[in-house]
Write a structure and sequence with these properties.
The structure is a single chain. The chain is of the alpha/beta class. Helix content is 32%, strand content 23%. The protein has 2 domains: 144 residues, 3-Layer(aba) Sandwich (Leucine Aminopeptidase, subunit E, domain 1), CATH 3.40.220; 315 residues, Zn peptidases (Aminopeptidase, 3-Layer(aba) Sandwich), CATH 3.40.630.10. Helix 4 packs parallel to helix 7. Bound molecules: ligand BES, magnesium ion and zinc ion. Zinc ion binds next to strand 12.
């Protein structure tokens, strides 16, 4: 999909999308475009409303923006329009932007249109969306130049589409090796370097916490490392380290899940967000060095599964007492974080993971939980999230919570054993493996990475984190 800028639509035949700001239900002036007008009694631009009118060989699709639209609502409205009106885009399609339409909102609109091509029926025979057709052109009528905005928006949407697909694919397809292959291919295509450690290499390196989780599964674990280096790298540029949880399926292990297991193909959503962010960071050629790690494996039940009460080692050298095999995400992240700090020494570290049910109990489906001891990093991540409609909100890492993970037999234990403060004690566990790094943040996205919305009838991916991480890096 690409845009071509036009200066008028007088002789245009086809579908015309016309987003309009909210006026007033009692407005005497109707909303109008090229002789097609709508009485405000019928449509006045209210958020989440639209009005279709068929006149002069054109389908006019008026889209209500509301009074003061934000990034997320514009993205969602355009995604909806794109998905629900598939049949109307098999013709010429135009978009008319209101005068002075903010570039940020235009970005949300363009990327929403492309994101609307996404459908979760990856194994069904369905016609692909017209926007995905080779050479599809959207005619754009606007005061001002939106070419760069559209180009950027399409790159954003492309990265999100990849993440959506990776998360929604079933666990027998999106295996650790599948994710590793994706990272290799995306690295080739977008320009980052990918290295993958298989089980044997991980054994040699001593990534024991990661291996403990992987040992119950016949599927080969893959420790994926991606490095993006800008062409014009300078000393002043920042180096960001990312770590994403890549559990391709979480059965709970021997502490097997009694609820919610069906949705646990989404337990690699943090990893998929990191993969999508790597694609986007490279595609946008951002001025920062980024090193990302996605430890990918399955938490399976098998005769080799690790046991509750096991004491294992980790890459950091610390020993870990296993209280619960379902607290596996923090184990693979521990090795991811240690490997990153020891071998790459980034200026900032952000990890992202569907880590705890507790974070869902706390924040529901509205925002991710943010943990960091670095006040400015906290603000930067919140700001980035607000900018793109992927919000995060802080929870504490106070020393008082340290006792929750203190073990009598090992250096640390992987679960407090208590049904309280689960997201916080998980974060405290991760902190233990950051080697005192002063700019580390942890995002627990269990509530926001996968869920219900209008875009499908069953729970599905949101690609939460792709834009948040990219925006954070871009803003640094
Ligand atoms: N993958 C889950 C967390 C999760 C829960 C993600 C709901 C998405 C939705 C994680 O590995 C897990 O099992 N966490 C346990 C930890 C507990 C055993 C300490 C939890 O939160 O219950
Ligand atoms: Mg688990
Ligand atoms: Zn998990």
């Amino acid at each position: 999909m690409k845009i071509i800028t036009v200066h008028e639509l007088a002789d245009f035949k086809g579908t015309i999308l016309i987003p309009v700001f909210e006026t007033h239900v009692k407005s005497l002036v109707p909303i109008e475009f090229q002789g097609v007008s709508v009485s405000s009694k019928v449509f006045y631009g209210k958020k989440d409303t639209s009005y279709h009118s068929d006149k002069y060989d054109c389908l006019h699709l008026f889209i209500g923006l509301g009074k003061t639209p934000d990034y997320k609502s514009v993205f969602t409205m355009f995604r909806r329009i794109s998905l629900r009106n598939k049949e109307h885009f098999n013709t010429n399609t135009a978009l008319v932007l209101p005068d002075g339409f903010q570039a940020g909102l235009a970005e949300a609109a363009f990327s929403g249109l492309l994101a609307g091509t996404y459908e979760i029926g990856h194994f069904k025979k369905t016609d692909s969306h017209p926007f995905l057709r080779e050479g599809f052109e959207l005619a754009l009528l606007a005061k001002g130049n939106y070419t760069e905005t559209a180009d950027r928006a399409f790159r954003i949407a492309k990265a999100k589409l990849e993440t959506l697909r990776l998360v929604d694919l079933p666990p027998n397809v999106a295996t650790p090796q599948y994710l590793a292959k994706w990272a290799m291919e995306a690295g080739e295509k977008y320009g980052f370097k990918t290295t993958v450690f298989d089980r044997q290499t991980c054994v040699q390196l001593g990534l024991d916490a990661f291996l403990a989780v992987a040992q119950g599964s016949a599927r080969e674990p893959q420790f994926i490392i991606m490095e993006y280096t800008p062409d014009n790298l300078t000393n002043g540029m920042k180096h960001i380290g990312l770590v994403g949880k890549g559990i391709t399926f979480d059965t709970g292990g021997l502490n097997i899940k009694t609820a919610g297991m069906l949705h646990m193909k989404s337990d690699m959503a943090g990893g998929a967000a990191v993969l999508g962010a790597m694609q986007l960071v490279s595609d946008l050629k951002l001025d920062a060095k980024v090193t990302a790690i996605v430890p990918a494996c399955e938490n399976a039940v098998g005769n080799m599964s690790f046991l509750p009460a096991d004491v294992i080692r980790s890459y950091s050298g610390h020993s870990i007492e296993i209280i619960d095999t379902d607290a596996e995400g923090r184990l693979i992240l521990a090795d991811g974080l240690s490997y990153l700090t020891k071998n790459y020494k980034p200026d900032y570290i952000v990890d992202i993971a569907t880590l705890t049910g507790s974070s869902v109990a706390t924040f529901g489906y509205e925002c991710g939980a943010l943990f960091t001891n670095n006040e400015s990093l906290s603000k930067q991540l919140q700001q980035a999230g607000d900018d793109v409609g992927e919000r995060v909100w802080p929870l504490p890492l106070w020393e008082a919570y340290r006792q929750d993970i203190e073990s009598e037999v090992a250096d640390v234990k992987n679960f407090s054993g208590k049904p309280v403060a689960g997201a916080i004690s998980a974060a405290k566990f991760l902190e233990f493996f950051t080697a005192g790094h002063t700019a580390w943040a942890h995002l627990d996205v269990a509530g926001v990475a996968f869920g219900d919305d209008e875009f499908a009838k069953t729970k599905h991916a949101t690609a939460f984190g792709v834009q948040l991480l990219t925006k954070f890096i871009e803003n640094l």
